[in-house]
Amino acid sequence: MHQNTRMHTLLYCLAAIAGISNIPATLAAESEDSIQLLQATGRYGPWQVPRAEFDTFLANHPNATGNYAIMGPNISASAESPFSGNESAIDGWSWSIVVSADLPLINTTWVPEDDGKGPFYYTGGKMTLNAPSSLLGPGGNLTVDDGWELCLFTWQIDDFPYSDKLRSDNGTCKSVLSDECIAEMKLAAASATVEGSCSCPIASSLPSCSRLGDAAKVFNNNCYGSPRNATDIRRWKEGKLETYAFGDATAHHLGNNTAYNNIGSLAFPALISFRNKDDINGVTDGSMTSLSCVRAVDAVAGSTVPGDAESSGNRLGTGAMTGIALALYGLWTLIL
User: Any signal peptide, and if so, which residues (predicted)?
Assistant: First the structure.
């Protein structure tokens, strides 16, 4: 987790423990396009909602999704020989994202002050890296050759100026980056992917990216590089790695889609670079490296795409379903 994000989440947690219902807006530097997000942790979702409830409501009541295929290797085979073909890309690697407009604030003391207008909700989502289902073994774990590892790079988008151009990105990041900049970032990431260590490519230090100026400013934010070896990859449940679970820092009442249009339309930059330590050539040309800007662009039935002008002020279909689920949950709690 980024240091700034960790501090941001910690301050909210301390406020909750102290019983403070209104949290000051000065926790982060403000700007016209600064985003405020709460991050889920191992035990809790945003707003300190129990993690199991966050995951369940998000899975059962999504409003928008997105899926982006990326380049990835056959990690079930070694890459000892450059002529074996084992290092060739296979289909099935992808990024996915799901966003819900109305996740209920339940089972938590960390709620806004009651204004008499009904229960509070928040907008939240989850971003996941997906491995090919063809690599899943009988037990649901991935089949991975010991030589494979990867580096996963993400950039902090909250508490920093955010380019609205990314809200219309098609997943390639080309709304803000040039082809030359993307190629240079991929090469820099691949070259810095070494055993047990990942060094982030910083746009301002790459000639073709630095020439883009403010257009590429998101890629100058805090960057976090996370290594995963073969053992780590085998632990991914059903071949999926959750990389980011988030929620809006401002609660709302059912039917208010302001946060959904703002938070739900965000594109999250992510770069992944694969490497096999047994490859005698060394994968440093960027051929197994992909840069994506992951955004929810497909509305589920009864919903609209986040940021769509037509969605402003309209109650989303699955939001009403969430309200029903909340009532049922409360009844079940009373029965227990």
Answer: 1-28
Predicted confidence (pLDDT) per residue in 215-257, tens digit: 889 999 999 999 999 999 999 999 999 999 999 999 999 989 9
Give me the mean pLDDT over the 307-321 stretch. Answer: 46
pLDDT tens per residue across span 43-75? 999 999 999 999 999 999 999 999 999 999 999
Amino acid at 278: D
Q: SS3 sequence, the chain? A: CCHHHHHHHHHHHHHHHCCCCCCCHHHCCCCCCEECEEECCCCECHHHCEHHHHHHHHHHCCCEEEEEECCCECCCCCCCCCCCCCCCECCCCEEEEEEEEEEECCCCCCCCCCCCCCCCEEEEEEEEEECCHHHECCCCCECCCCCEEEEEEEECCECCECCHHHHHCCCCCCCCCCHHHHHHHHHHHHHCEECCEECCCCHHHCHHHHCCHHHHHHHHCCEEEEEEEHHHHHCCHHHEEEEEEEEECCCECCCCCHHHHHHCCCCEEEEEEEEECCCCCCCCCCCCEEEEEECCCEECCCCCCCCCHHHCCCCCHHHHHHHHHHHHHHHHHHHC
* Pairing status of strand 240-248 against strand 121-130: antiparallel
pTM for this structure?
0.81
**What does residue 109 show for φ and ψ, rounded to 5 degrees?**
-85, -5
d(CA 25, CA 31): 12
